[in-house]
Amino acid sequence: MKKLIFFVFSLSIGAACFSQEITNPAPQGFDVVRADIARGNLDTITYFSETVGNNRNAVIYTPPGYSNEEKYPVLYLLHGIGGDEFEWLNGGQPQVIFDNLYADDKLEPMIAVMPNGRAMKDDRATGNVFAPEKQKAFATFEKDLLNDLIPFIEKNYPVKSKREHRAIAGLSMGGGQSLNFGLGNLDKFAWVGGFSSAPNTKSPEELIPNPKVAKEQLKLLWLSCGDKDGLIDISNRTSNYLKENDVPHRYEIYDGNHDFGVWKTSLYKFSQLLFKPKDL
Ligand code: FER
Questions:
Q1: 41-49 and 54-62: which strand pairing?
Q2: 147 alpha carbon to ligand 1 midpoint, in Å?
Q3: Cα separation of 177 and 182, whole Å?
Q4: Which helix (H) or strand (E) holds 178?
Q5: Are 194 and 238 in contact (CB under 8 A)?
Q6: From ligand 1's centre to the CA of 90, what distance in Å?
Q7: What pLDDT score does 20 carry?
Q8: Domains held by the chain: number
Q9: What DSSP state is assigned to residue 159?
Q10: What CATH code is carried by the domain that includes residue 264?
Q11: For residue 29, is it left (φ>0), alpha (ψ between -120 and 50) or beta?
């Protein structure tokens, strides 16, 4: 009996050491439309993709007070396996979150681009969204993003084009893409966020082969997940490696599942850190 009690005691000590506290949710009303505040603008844009060989669409949000006289940093915000360029809008209304944050002066003015991350001719989220060729298209999107979409945005919008002014984040498959592409291209991205990252996330050793360089180059490395998400081991694994290798990052775990509750909270918190001095 004593042995059993000791065993259970050790297990709970072990769980306490390895478990992470649940982080506070976003404040009430963060995602509710407010009357009488300035609003950003949403648009759909079309760019030619050399990678795919046809025109592709993306949604773009420009902030309240947007002006061609200014230059803005850019957040690329990516969707999940069952989504497309409209998933964030339909499920998360990020424009409402952003408008409210701007009204409270909590966000650095930025452009947010929501692309279609399934880089193939038919990029609709129809049929079996887990089909191998569709999953492959989520990896191919790295080329489309770097060689087609980013140059299009930089040619057609008043944006700052240094790595310090470019962020990438996404939900689930888009979280995996953000970690893979962001950490794989530190010369292009200084701000990287994975929300509930999916099994397309590379192994930590592949993601961060050189922790010292990552540590020097990253302005922000963000991970978040719902505590009841079946995919949480992927975020835990990544965070553990980062801890072991002394790479600063923020890992937030919310009371939630694999859903927009977690993703909206993540966007609310992550976006406020962007393009600001590190220790704000
Ligand atoms: C998987 C489970 C979930 C997977 C991807 C997902 C690639 C993606 C989920 C999402 O984007 O919401 O095994 O394999």
A1: antiparallel
A2: 25
A3: 8
A4: helix 173-184
A5: yes
A6: 19
A7: 76
A8: 1
A9: B
A10: 3.40.50.1820
A11: left
> Is 200 among the domain residues?
yes
Beta bridge partners of 41: 62
Protein residue with least CA distance to atom 1, ligand 1: 199
* Nearest Cα residue to atom 14 of ligand 1: 199
- Residues of the domain holding 158: 2-9+42-273
268 CA to centre of own chain: 11
For each successive 10 residues of the chain (280 residues), what is the average pLDDT? 46 49 95 98 98 98 98 98 98 98 98 99 98 98 99 98 98 99 98 98 98 98 98 98 98 98 98 84
Flag whether 35 is in a domain.
no
CA of 265 from ligand 1 middle (Å) equals: 20
Contacts of 178 (CB under 8 A, 6+ apart): 76, 78, 168, 169, 170, 192, 193, 194, 197
Q: How far is it, in rounded angstroms, from Cα 80 to Cα 176? A: 9
Q: Name residue, tokens 């692309």.
A: 115
Q: Is residue 20 part of a domain?
A: no
Sheet strands (E) in the chain = 41-49, 54-62, 74-78, 111-115, 166-171, 191-195, 220-226, 250-254
Tell me whether residue 238 is in a domain.
yes
